[in-house]
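ugh finaly. both done.
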Amino acid sequence: MDAHLIEALGDELFHALQGRQPLAPLSERHPGIDLDDAYRISLRFLQRREQVGERVIGKKIGVTSRAVQEMLNVHQPDFGFLTDRMQVADGSAVSCTEHRLIQPRAEGEIAFILGEDLSGPGITAEDVLAATRWVLPCFEIVDSRIHDWRIRIQDTVADNASCGVFCLGTERIDPRELDLAAVELRMTLNGQPAGNGLGSAVQGHPCAAVAWLANTLGAFGIPFRKGEVILSGALAPLVPVGPGDEIGMSLSGIGQSSLRFVE
């Protein structure tokens, strides 16, 4: 794709976010789009967000578990950026209007806070564990600027890995004290069970998922920085949410998190 089209599509995604109006899939309108094109579009989308004051505070991997891949019909991980305006407080009310959510879905996952820089390629799961200061419970509210979640991998990468907002639980746990692959997630929606899963659901181990992300972004010259938040992917199928809903989660050995949704 030429630079003008890359810029135009990144601008389309930005305006879709601002106006809460989803787009027809990019991959249908431009069948030749590849992952490199999609990543360049996502950088333009991010640039527009930075121009209105947003600041990058971390990165995310998504579509890591088989359950989520089957749900979205996307069969490889995606990746994107987290900004300060995407973060909401644990236990808070999330306004779908204020946070510009269109078709949100909740996922429970393990978040990593880095204690030192990491720069791929060549990063291993062991490197990730050594570089991590804390792990935390996290709700990511994914949201697609693509109509009806009709996405291919190119669409979700261009759309900043379908990230809406995220919240971090208040607990801070040393990851070396746990078997992260054996951590169990339990989710609730309006007080009823809404899914469960294990840390091993993401690439076999959450640290392996984070290592994949470090190496993938490293190939584009994007390092992980000390203090950044890294989201490692959903441990269970996504749960659609909307105004009036309340979600909760627990991660064994790590902690709990909750959110409620308003118009």
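ok and the 2nd:
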Amino acid sequence: MRYRHYSLRTEEAYRYWVRFFVRWSGRGGSMRHPRDLGAAEVQDFLSMLANERQVSASTHNQALSALLFLYREVLGVEVPDALAVKYPNLGRRWGWFWVFPAPKLSLDPRSGFERRYHLDEERLQRAIKLASAAAHIAKPVSVHTLRHSFATHLPQAGTDIRTVQELLGHSDVSILMIDTHVLKVAAGGAASPLDALGGLVS
């Protein structure tokens, strides 16, 4: 959450709801890890908040957002079945789509349903090589080349270095600044005033 620059208030709220969910689900015995809590536990927890505690819509949405963050960003699993049942259009939102979807459906080993997953990384690399050959580019071109070009053209368009850092996912801007070419472009290609002194020195 800190990497994504969430506020301290949001961080504390999400931690509260995750703890509440785990402890409430384990109220009858020993607590279990969230990855071991399935559709029934999630459904019961959300229903309890709405029916027994009668929380406001905003509070209920905050609890839901905390669970979504837990399962999607921390545990890295698909939307739990209970959330898909309670919110049938959830899986259609942009945040759950693959940017590069596979052309065919695959069988999900957990649920038994056919799902569309992301495109295999090797297929993307092969497509880039074919495109570079068709464009008669002699130099090697890879996915990293596209990333480097992205990082170079953003500052040329006036994007500040901190925004480029966030878009590339660098935790430290110094990692990005290793590339001197990007550094020069990020500075707008402006020459240092000291460069002009070179002509005065004989």
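summary for the 2nd one i guess: The chain has two domains: 8-88, 121-191.
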